[in-house]
Design brief:
Structural class: mainly alpha
Shape: globular
Subunit structure: Probably interacts with PlsX.
Largest sheet: none
Helix content: 55-70%
Main location: membrane
Number of helices: 15
EC number: 2.3.1.275
Function: Catalyzes the transfer of an acyl group from acyl-phosphate (acyl-PO(4)) to glycerol-3-phosphate (G3P) to form lysophosphatidic acid (LPA). This enzyme utilizes acyl-phosphate as fatty acyl donor, but not acyl-CoA or acyl-ACP.
Strand content: under 5%
GO biological process, one term: phospholipid biosynthetic process
């Protein structure tokens, strides 16, 4: 009995080690209790620090649920004490003694604890989460449905009433932690999960299609589209411009040559016969 109580206390203390707050401090990120949704969990860390940081936090949260339950099973404390160990780990994550009792919603830690408590129950909880998230696209709704169905899964697979109350309280506390999400789901303001498959689907989701008949399109828009569709002339290069400029120059030179040849030949000047004048003087 004393050993069972000790393991339950250890499970609570392990659950109180909030990985979201510690990882954000080590990486120099803002406190998840003060940023985003102000919930120190993996989902809020995803908004603050990205996918890799959120994956680290998620892994630690699941591990917090697995380790104490595995320890309880190793010590052979019985199904009832093991189930209470799982509950203590989840409560430690929700109300951590090291962080002013301000913790997360306990979904990842609960899944880890259920996987260690009964592997098939844990797998059924994960399958329920994936199924609800795929159909309704709400992470909070998927978490609520998956954890709330866990006590019924335990009754079907284990069939022991002694282990039912701790698992039922896990579901009850998870449901209470999601009270704000439930009000947003009722109001229709809860954000959905975005499953991005292809680039075409992303474009179709971001830009809704509009059915416009060709008669409704104005003539000005039709003319603009027709002008855009016409092939544009290639820009003239330097070689082509130099050729075009050289042609008129050659024509000018040929015209000048023709004009020179066409000019009439000048008449030679008449010269007086000098010899004749000399002979006439001698005769005189």
């Amino acid at each position: 009995m004393a050993l069972s109580i000790l393991i339950v206390v250890i499970a609570y203390l392990m659950g109180s080690i909030n990985s979201a707050i510690i990882v954000c401090r080590l990486l120099g990120l803002p406190d998840p209790r003060e940023e985003g949704s102000k919930n120190p969990g993996a989902t809020n860390v995803l908004r603050i620090g990205g996918k890799q940081t959120a994956a680290i936090v998620m892994g630690f949260d699941v591990l917090k649920g697995i380790l104490p339950v595995v320890l309880a099973k190793y010590l052979d404390l019985g199904s009832t004490a093991t189930a209470f160990t799982a509950l203590a780990a989840v409560l430690g994550h929700m109300y951590p003694v090291f962080f002013q009792f301000r913790g997360g919603k306990g979904v990842a830690t609960a899944i880890g604890a259920l996987l260690a408590f009964h592997f098939i129950i844990g797998v059924m909880v994960i399958a329920t989460w994936l199924l609800v998230a795929n159909f309704f696209r709400y992470s909070s709704l998927a978490s609520i449905c998956a954890i709330v169905l866990a006590p019924f899964y335990s009754m079907i697979l284990i069939g022991e009433l002694n282990s039912f109350p701790p698992i039922f309280f896990i579901a009850l506390f998870v449901l209470y932690k999601h009270k704000d999400n439930i009000t947003r789901l009722i109001d229709g303001t809860e954000p959905k999960i975005k499953f991005k498959h292809t680039v075409i689907e992303e474009i179709m989701e971001s830009e809704p299609a509009e059915d416009i008949s060709p008669h409704e399109v104005p003539e000005s828009e039709m003319a603009q589209s027709a002008e855009k569709a016409k092939p544009k002339k290639a820009p003239a290069t330097k070689a082509t411009t130099e050729k075009k400029e050289s042609k008129p120059k050659a024509a000018k030179t040929t015209k000048a040559k023709v004009e020179k040849t066409a000019e009439p030949a000048k008449k030679p000047k008449a010269t007086k016969p000098k010899a004749a004048t000399k002979t006439t003087k001698k005769k005189e």
